Amino acid sequence: MRIAELAARTGVSPHLIRMWERRYGLLSPTRSAGGYRLYGPRDEALLNQMREQRAQGVPAGEAVTRVLARRNGRPAPPAPTGVTEPKRPSRELLDHLHEAVQGFDEVRASVALDDLLADHPFGAGLDEILIPYLRELGERWADGRATVAHEHFASSLIRRRLAPLCQTDEQGDGPLALLACPSGEQHDLMLMSFGILLAQAGWRVRHLGSDTPMSAITSAAQALTPDLVVLSATRAELFWSKRPELGQLRDLIGADRLALAGTGASAQLADDLGVGRFTGTPTQAAQALVGTPR
């Protein structure tokens, strides 16, 4: 498999995979005829073991030593007293990310984001890190400490970090979800995150992204016959202005298969349409749908 699939299967970003490979020699990929790195089940197992070690607070270098010892059939060396590194407060890590984004430093920002997410299951990292960060970035923009360029830079960085996690098991028979933001809505990171949580729970996900015309959403729903269609918007008027099209989509797929989400999803409109409504964070929405996400 190529690095994007490996990242999706393990939850470790391509950036972090390459760093562990380069710095510690953790993985031994082969090369395809076209020069691409190819990874196998052993590499996937090593990365999963690394995540387990890091989640226990074992420093990366020590974690590699233990993981490789286990792979080579040797007893893993005991962790010396005092070597586990306490997790730095989220506040400190968030400040590092803000500083990197402020300077448009993509390398520092990527490292900071990986540091923030490496030791957290995705749902916890989303609630404890990404959502607070994006909220603070919005506040910085509002009071003049950040610009639209900073917001776009950060969103692009996060989107690239999340993209490898969006891959789903197309060989599986899990339910199918169609996700989209209606036309006029540019913010799709929370919907993207919701899709990742569904994928981790065994759903197959089709994400149409931001600013999608209702006609395109309806066409996709006709072609895919999904088990669930979720539309997300941050402003209520983006839904209310499309009330007739939403009604047509509901009639096409069934009220029990359509749900509104995001801060723009008003209870009044959902009740008026007779469709579902997800509230809270993407993690809370996914938990309401499928149970506790991994």
What is this structure's SSE topology?
Blueprint (H helix, E strand, L loop, with lengths): L2 H8 L3 H11 L5 E2 L5 E2 L2 H15 L4 H12 L18 H13 L3 H13 L3 H21 L5 H15 L13 E5 L8 H12 L3 E4 L6 H11 L3 E5 L3 H5 L2 H11 L4 E4 L5 H7 L2 E2 L4 H9 L4
Helix pairs in contact: 3-4, 5-6, 6-8, 8-9, 9-14, 10-12
Protein name: Putative MerR family transcriptional regulator
GO molecular function: cobalamin binding; DNA binding; DNA-binding transcription factor activity; metal ion binding
Organism: Kineosphaera limosa NBRC 100340
User: Largest beta sheet: what is the strand line-up?
Assistant: 4-3-5-6-7
Shape: globular
Please state the CA-atom Rg, rounded to the nearest Å: 21 Å
The CATH superfamily of the largest domain turns out to be: Cobalamin-binding domain
CATH fold group of the largest domain: Rossmann fold
Q: Which CATH class of the largest domain applies here?
A: Alpha Beta
Number of separate helices: 14
Summarize the helix and strand pattern as letters. HHEEHHHHHHEHEHEHHEHEH
